[in-house]
Amino acid sequence: MPEITRRIGLSLGADVCWPIAYTEILRRLDLRIPAPEGELRFDVERVTIKPFDLRQPCGYDVVIDRLTQWYDTTREWIKKSVILDDLYVFNNPWSVQSMEKQTTYCALMRLGLPIPDTWLVPPKAYEPAADLEVTLKRYAELFDIGAIGDRVGYPLFMKPYDGGGWRGVSRIEDAAGLRAAYEESGKFVMHLQRAVEGHDLFVRCIGLGPQTRAVLYDADAPLHDRYTMTRGFAAPAELQLLRDLTLTINAFFGWDFNSCESLRSGGRWIPIDFANPCPDSQVTSLHYHFPWLIKANLRWSLFCAATKRPMRKTLDWEPFFDACQPGMTPEERIRACGGIAKDRLDAARFEAFCAEHLPHLDEVADEFFRGPEARDAIRQKVAALFPEHEIEEFTGLFFERVQRACAEEPPGSLGPLAS
Ligand SMILES: Nc1ncnc2c1ncn2[C@@H]1O[C@H](COP(=O)(O)OP(=O)(O)O)[C@@H](O)[C@H]1O
Ligand SMILES: [Mg+2]
């Protein structure tokens, strides 16, 4: 049987720990997967940045991309590779480039989900541009920001329509506070969004292909404690709803890897931020959940590379809209859309692929995470972020949390689609 190498590229920025874990576990897996065309072997390599001929073929089958959202050269190389060379990349670069928070709010409103009341307001200040003055003089209506705040209701959140990483987010209690905050808001195009009050749970649900992991999130904790280690914090039916919601959003926008935030208030789940298509993957934030992420990433990228999964280049929204009929409750809508999402994300074929070709992944990963190379990868990330005198302490803390995950989720205890 001829040996065929499938090549996976990692397009990275400041990532340190996860590529080390990913690469080392893949090496130890030593995969040989029989396929009609030969025996598949897998190679992983870090993508470098360089000038490229638009007609130069792409040497990768799959690229895991962390740069598209801010680094144009790589994004354009990826886009040409998808169009000309049938590269499979996650995430879809056109979708990452064009789908801001604003679009995701609109999409979920259209699907009939309970998005808090939200207004978009023009910015307070502008970059100079040739036609700016004449355009604003002719067409920009004067408005009273306080009156809009009254319509939305207080407290509210003012936050950029394309935000991320809590940049420019403020909680506002009254009209005076809103006026002051808007005066200071500079060139941001802002949303004013009614606050979801009195929530008892805040969840971040990570989706990677058809795999999900719902994590109870503590927004008030220091960065390294925000992803909590609490499991089973909601009823199974609620967790299933959050998973279906995440898969719906991801399939709708063509994001294989994304994380969705929802708050539970008065027994209802309210999505508030679900455009995070370059989710935090660092052990310094994920700690306990880091092994899950690495395994999920390996499973999905290997499935895509081995099966030559075709990448969906355009987004097809009508089936989601059609699935949401008048009279359906939000929960019924999420379930219906979740079914479409699972089909689009090949959940059944993926599960069968993992059972047949990756039965040893859990064992191999477990051995890696318990060993000195995992500790060293953690240390490297900690050293990049923490002051010198905290490196030992935090390396120990994160390694210990990873050990706890190994003990609580031993090999074989979670199927690929359980979270
Ligand atoms: N409507 C809202 N109700 C309650 N809290 C909110 C709301 N909008 C934002 N927040 C709070 O502000 C944080 C940042 O807002 P978010 O929309 O997630 O922006 P970013 O994309 O910058 O993370 C959220 O994690 C949450 O704690
Ligand atoms: Mg957020």
Structure description:
- The chain has 419 residues and is of the alpha+beta class.
- It has 3 domains: 3-98, Rossmann fold; 117-194, Dna Ligase, domain 1; 201-408, no CATH class.
- Helix content is 43%, strand content 18%.
- It has 16 helices and 13 strands.
- The chain has helices at 17-29, 72-85, 93-98, 101-110, 132-139, 145-152, 175-183, 236-253, 283-286, 290-307, 318-323, 330-344, 347-357, 361-369, 372-385, 391-408; strands spanning 3-11, 33-35, 38-46, 62-65, 88-90, 118-121, 156-160, 170-172, 190-194, 201-208, 211-216, 257-265, 268-273.
- Strands 2-3-1-4-5 form a 5-stranded mixed beta sheet, sandwiched between helices.
- Helix 1 (17-29) crosses helix 14, helix 6 (145-152) packs across helix 7 (175-183) and helix 15 (372-385) packs across helix 16.
- It starts with a strand and ends in an 11-residue tail after the last helix.
- The site of magnesium ion has 2 residues, from loops.
- Residues 116, 157, 159, 163-167, 169, 193, 195-196, 219, 261, 272-273 line the site of adenosine-5'-diphosphate.
Helix count from the secondary structure assignment: 16
What is the average of the pLDDT values?
96
Helix-strand category: alpha+beta
Taking all Cα atoms into account, the compactness measure Rg is: 23 Å
- Strand percentage lies at 15-25%
- Element-by-element helix/strand order: EHEEEHEHHEHHEEHEEEHEEHHHHHHHH
> First CA to last CA: what distance?
37 Å
As for the number of domains, it is 3
Main beta sheet strand tally, sense and closure: 5 strands, mixed
What small-molecule ligands were found? adenosine-5'-diphosphate, magnesium ion
Count the strands?
13
The neighbouring-strand order within the major sheet is: 2-3-1-4-5
Shape: globular
Percent range for helical residues? Answer: 40-55%
Uncertain spans, ≥5 residues at pLDDT below 50?
Answer: none
